[in-house]
Design a protein that fits this description.
alpha+beta, Uridine Diphospho-n-acetylenolpyruvylglucosamine Reductase, domain 3, Alpha-Beta Plaits, 4 domains, 7-stranded antiparallel beta sheet, 5-stranded antiparallel beta sheet, globular, FAD-linked_Oxase-like_C, FAD, Oxid_FAD_bind_N, flavoprotein
Amino acid sequence: MLRSLQDVVGSSHVITDSDVLDGRSVDHTGRYRGKASALVRPGSAEQVAEVLRICRDAGAHVTVQGGRTSLVAGTVPEHDDVLLSTERLGVLGDVDTVERRVEVGAGATLAGVQQAASAAGLIFGVDLAARDTATVGGMASTNAGGLRTVRYGNMGEQVIGLQVALPDGSLLRRHSLVRSDNTGYDLPALFVGAEGTLGVITALDLRLHPSPSHRVTAVCGFADLDALVEAGRTFRDVDGIAALELIDGRAAALSGEHLGVSAPVDGDWLLLVELAADHDQTERLADLLDGVALAGEPAVGVDTAAQQRLWRVRESLAEVLGVYGPPLKFDVSLPLSSISGFARDAVALIEGQVDDALPLLFGHIGEGNLHLNVLRVPLEQEKALYGPMMDLIAACGGNVSSEHGVGTRKRPYLDMSREPADIAAMRAVKAALDPTGYLNAAVLFD
């Protein structure tokens, strides 16, 4: 099999060095580890398809890897797998400024797409803190959300066409120049969010958006989480909303202590709000904040430098989470009405299970997509906390996954938010496209 793979992609792109494989077999969080037999780096869609055919015929499992920023062990091999990396599929096509779209390889980074769009006077609708590493193929596979979801939606709403290498070694391409194409099944929607279980996305046609000429950003402090949630409920439906981010005051304090990024306002909870439009939004923001139960005056940024300083408060959180070792992460999707109760009960649960643990909550309050990170949780104590926390999320009406996917870590909890007939239908689709179940076999299903 290795010789056949070398014939397809070249000997330098089939790697069996144990040190390389060990580094590629650990989750982005550092908490989960697997084992791989080889790393293969195809350079074209045709090579991806042929690699899949060879591995299927050889009975080898394949785990697909992009930027490896998964937070749910989605790229961790479990069966001595062949790792298929999309890193060489990074081509960026020319931006079509008339139709506002661009065709890119699955291995292109989010930052690369954002830069190409910006150079053409446009913007890409999804933004993540991991923009320099995350690949758009992986983001589509997990239907990633991020910092601009309240305005532009998740990754699926940016994908208008794609190319996929199917498990049988064939290539599927859905590409249309028209903006509305209702011909047959919506196949892109099938592969977006499938977490690589149905095929390997090799290229995408992505929607771009006009860039608003005016932005205003504010960070507001709250003494009460209920008041913040109520403000978030109001802001999320406002025309021109561009971002709406919850920041735990404890997380902001940690960023100030370790990174020197201090919060510009006081409060147990912080809310970052951004409005963007083709006219000045400053007075409108002031009107919207009038009557909101703030802990003090908000910090407002109207120029780019000031806005970047305010955004640093939110984006620094990703940097500081590893201060006490790999954090235990929960991707929490909740009704807005349940957020305050969940925050209270989650802290009580954590304090009762793990001594000295530090829970930090932040995320996208407009959609109720929040990230609970628990610091100082030893690996041996994770099991005692994980199950009860998932039970709490379910009791609060939450979902197993908001935007990070199910991956390997959450697959035992799939039935928390999917009924048996739903899971059976998903399994039937998987069996139809991948009868032997060799592709991303550790992901989504037990």
